[in-house]
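Tutorial, part two.
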Amino acid sequence: MKDNLKLLIRYSVLMALTVVMTMVIHIPTIGTNGYLNLGDMVVFLAAFVLGKKGGFIVGGLGSALADLLLGYSHYAPITLIVKGLEGYIAGSLLEREIGKRKPIIATSVAGIFMAFGYFVPEIFLYGKGAIATLPGNIMQGLLGAITSVVLYTALKRTNAFN
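Running the prediction step on this input gives:
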């Protein structure tokens, strides 16, 4: 019972932190009705701490909730799937040998997936203009990848996750 409560609290805190990091620094993108943010960092932290299932749940629900709260409701269903899969992919790769040795590879692959995961539905929303979203989303994914690895490494040394 106590372990279930701890797990529930970890999920809740990481989802809330995803919402906060997405909402506090969000930079609207011109012409796409989207925005850049730091939520990916927390999605990857969730994958580090909670694994692929946690990455999926925190990434999908936390990020979609931020979309709803910021008024980007048209993106919420896309975000639920894309950010959920981003967290799942990161968590899956982090469980493998390459992810354990080089976590930046696991998080970077997931971050790049996120950029292309948004690109596909944006083709239907914006046509050829969707190409304009790729550089910013790739940059956002890679920034989240780098910052999450640095932050997780630092937190691991403090025994914060024990």
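The beta strands are 26-29, 34-37. In part three we will examine how such features are distributed along the chain.
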